Please model this.
Amino acid sequence: MQITREKWSKNFSEWFDWVLREGEFYDYGRYPVKGMGVWMPYGFKLRQNIISIIRNLLDSTGHEEVLFPLLIPEDLLSRESTHIKGFEEEVFWVTKGGSEDLDVKLALRPTSEVAITTMENLWLKSYKQLPKKYYQIVSVFRYETKATRPMIRLREITTFKEAHTVHETYDDAQRQVEEAIEIYKKIFNNLAIPYVLSERPEWDRFAGALHTYAFDTIMPDGKVMQIGTVHHLGQNFSRALDFKIQKKDGSLDYPHQTSYGISDRAIASVIAIHGDDHGPILPPSVAPIKVVVVPIPAKNEEGTQQVMKYSIEICEMLNKNNITCVTDQDTEKTPGEKFYIWEIKGVPIRLEIGPRELASSTVFIKRRDNLKSYTVKKEEVVNKVKEVLNEIQEDLRKRAWESLKSRIEYANDIEKAKNILENNSGIVEVPWCGSKECGLKIEELTNARVLGYPIEDRKVNDKCVICKMNAKTVLRVAKTY
Ligand code: ZN
Model:
């Protein structure tokens, strides 16, 4: 398959495939199992950098990392009835060991609430041990029947960060939900990813949860992608698994739990959202390579070698200052060909160093995001690069937030909402009375998905778009991934 440069906002799906492959992030569609992709070395480094941000934020807020088995027996998975109903059509089953049929079917974990609660039941006995916050970063498996997409809709989600917490009371668990939301805001801010936070409606909660709060972002094509969820599980799982703890007043009771997850989609959004027609623009906070030096050949061989030496010297200076830099030493490719390659990799800063820079002991700095450039003295390079990296990080965040905000519209008429979604996509907020019936009708009439409603009170002086009763809040509707 020939993959050529595609328009970022016009032809996003093709653009994304092109970037993942040509930028050597992720090889998708060629491994012989549907819905499973391969992280290539460069993409793997980006993934590691994103995981580090997540891990640091969880570790510093008292979460402890664990690692549970991949397999969950069928009888355990089916213990919480809503939970199994929500997942049974998407579970991969292991039914044989060698040529023998297994006594109990084993599921490849689609998520780990029951697995973790089973062990918590053995480990946790008293309120004195609470709150308890565990997390793991693992593969989960879902037998997706819709069309799969690289990093976005997979059968193996390879970067599933799932946190699971235990609390004495409902309110303690609610406070944990709030902490999780704050942690996620920090994660997405670090990644310069804008988001909309909604409470999912009752008909679209996580299977087995009392409340589901979700972070959604808008992709370049206007479709909305869920990038993080936080669930208040109440006592549903502890009750189903007969997990009790001793409370402060001496009584035995089921503890309250929460769980929250982030997946490969966070990485997909980092690559997709800060792009242009030349490729992605990785935020400096996670870019595996922050600076690339492209030497510009001189008229003669000796001059070219001196330029190369000077380029390597500058790059080493940056590396010594913890700014990951690479010099492109390829002698076959032209500078233009090299620009093309490093742009698809999303490297935020390019240094162009040629005979002119060598003669004047300067460096030419070019920003990937807005093409601004600066010529600075060799001694000033480190400080200038640091400054420019910070500016890029900030500007990417601002640009992405502005773009997201410009794609949220209000419509007090269902036809208008439908039109917006069909033409510009993004998110439409419509006045809503709060009833499930009207919510489902809104979904049906707009031919879109309901994301939910704002978690803060929203004053709406309008009538519900369906029943014309006074609206209690707005319902957010979007075309989704
Ligand atoms: Zn209504």
